[in-house]
Design brief:
Length: about 290
């Protein structure tokens, strides 16, 4: 028997069937790999992001740039580790064997052809961040906030979160909440105390990426109907947002390489404008 015949016999050997759980686990591994690869598409824009707005000093510019370089390097290393893992090698080998035995029935396809290939959403899940976190049985307008309420809220926040740099400027009626790494978001909360009906809060941040825009949009939806204690609590929940997995699917990144950027009241599934809320992170696809 020649070497060609031997090779053909090996190719024709029936595959050992994988269980349904093993197949689903393999799909999840591929999904994680794809999501991390997609995340690197904005690596360059992420690196130059600190240069797109005015920094308070050259040192701050350098620190932000260095932080983004380190994050990007960590993303590359994590993708490399994932691709080279024994689990991934097993999946790639299985795919190669399957293609060799059934080459006529297998064709390549883009993820855009089957965007829901590992979708965990139910059929009635909202697809707009505006639909999340703004309704509920007790989502009435919050009462008017006084400057004394703001002082008490910021002092309580400092006690609860000593690692977060926070301050209140009573003259401009703004609160500054600077999250430490890895989140590193610098929030600014503008407060309107002049309304005769209710106080209003507008949250902005120094960062300008699309990811941060999504976070701000979601926070400002909730800020319409909450008091300062609840608002400060949700800002603090983003300290580790790039390391905290989704509470629903248990993954850090979804199929679009997005972090779990939404926050929902853990106790009831919606914002109720009360203090003591514990916020759970969710992907938009997992709400």
């Amino acid at each position: 028997m020649d070497s060609t015949a031997t090779a053909n016999e090996v190719t024709a050997t029936p595959e050992v069937e994988w269980s349904e759980a093993h197949l689903e686990s393999s799909m999840a591994q591929l999904q994680e790999m794809h999501a991390r690869l997609c995340k690197l598409r904005d690596a360059v824009s992420r690196l130059i992001d600190p240069m797109l707005f005015q920094q308070s000093s050259p040192e701050e510019l350098y620190n932000d740039f260095a932080r983004n370089v380190n994050r990007t390097q960590a993303d590359v290393q994590e993708l490399t580790r994932l691709v080279r893992s024994e689990r991934s090698k097993e999946i790639f080998e299985r795919a190669a064997e399957s293609r060799a035995q059934n080459s006529g029935d297998i064709r390549g396809w883009r993820v855009t052809e089957h965007e829901d290939w590992l979708d965990v959403r139910g059929p009635d899940v909202p697809t707009d961040v505006n639909a999340v976190g703004t309704t509920g049985p007790n989502s009435d307008s919050s009462p008017r906030t006084s400057i004394e309420d703001l002082r008490a809220a910021i002092e309580q926040f400092k006690n609860n979160h000593p690692g977060i740099n926070s301050s209140l400027d009573e003259t401009s009626k703004t609160m500054m909440i600077n999250l430490p790494p890895p989140g590193g978001i610098r929030f600014r909360v503008a407060i309107n105390l002049d309304s005769t009906t209710q106080s209003t809060f507008v949250v902005t941040c120094s960062e300008s990426s699309s990811m941060h825009a999504t976070i701000l949009q979601h926070i400002n939806n909730i800020a319409r109907n909450c008091n300062p204690d609840v608002l400060l609590g949700i800002l603090a929940s983003y300290v580790n947002f790039q390391k905290t997995p989704c509470s629903r699917c248990r993954r850090l990144l979804d199929r679009n390489a997005q972090f779990p950027l939404l926050r929902v009241d853990r106790s009831s599934g919606h914002h109720e404008g009360r203090t003591g809320v514990q916020w759970q992170p969710l992907h938009l696809n997992c709400v």
